[in-house]
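Schema walk-through. Below, the input block comes first and the output block second. Nothing else is stored per chain. Lengths vary across the set, and this one has 298 residues.
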Amino acid sequence: MADSSHTPELPEDLTPEVSEPLSPELSETLTGNSSGEHEPPETVPQAVPEPIIVFSHVYISFDGRPVLEDVSFSVNRGQTLCILGRSGVGKSVSLRLLMGFLHADSGSICVEGREITGLNEDGMQEIRKRITMVFQNGALFDSLSVRENIAFPLRERGGLAEDQVQQIVNQLIGLVGAEDVADNLPASLSTGRRRAVAIARALAAQPEVVLYDEPTTMVDPIIARRLGGIIQRLKRQLGFTSIVVTHDMRFAERLADLVLFLDQGRARFFGPLSEFVASADPHIQQFLTLDAYRLPLR
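--- output ---
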């Protein structure tokens, strides 16, 4: 696949999107299912009635300034939650609380029924084996090539021969369209390509939940569409659970089962995407209107 950072912009309905099924080998790697039998994605949420992630009345403040106030939401296995809102309303803070990088002042955060707010670092390391995060900057190792970055979690986990590691790495590289930059260092990649590689490295850790922090910020529409296509495929074909922080309503409309809309640190809306779009709340309608606004062509 060509380096799309040099591809001319196309109208959205003409932008390329990879949609072929994941290979059985890659599917088994990502799900940990060695039998090759995969539950259809549409049945996954019903299979586990208890939510995989629950926030309940969570508060956190920085230097006395409230950032999240009484925020509650839940995500079932196989669902995609998009957290929406303007800048500085605590969207990314929610992800960092889930990863244990920040600690709530009060409230409860549960992962698969396990309370994580009081866990020490060893306990959080166990949680991070199930939940991984794709950061805005990619958080790749600068001194390792794309291939070595993706191989890192596989080698850390152990149990695989080197030829197996390389086979999985090649499959993940193909999944995110990074074949042409596999031996490059991260510094040579565009922002969008770094994020795509970061997704591949996150998947190599075989997580149950993937958190995405503003995946479309500072990338062109073609790369944004491709990143969205990857997240969609992981949900449709493998039933992955995702939480996506974004300010981009068009991106959210392609991905979301559920929407959490944060406004001044509070959860102004939590529920299905269709209900969010149809909401009569003036704050929500203002957000939707401003997001849809485009400067006129000259």
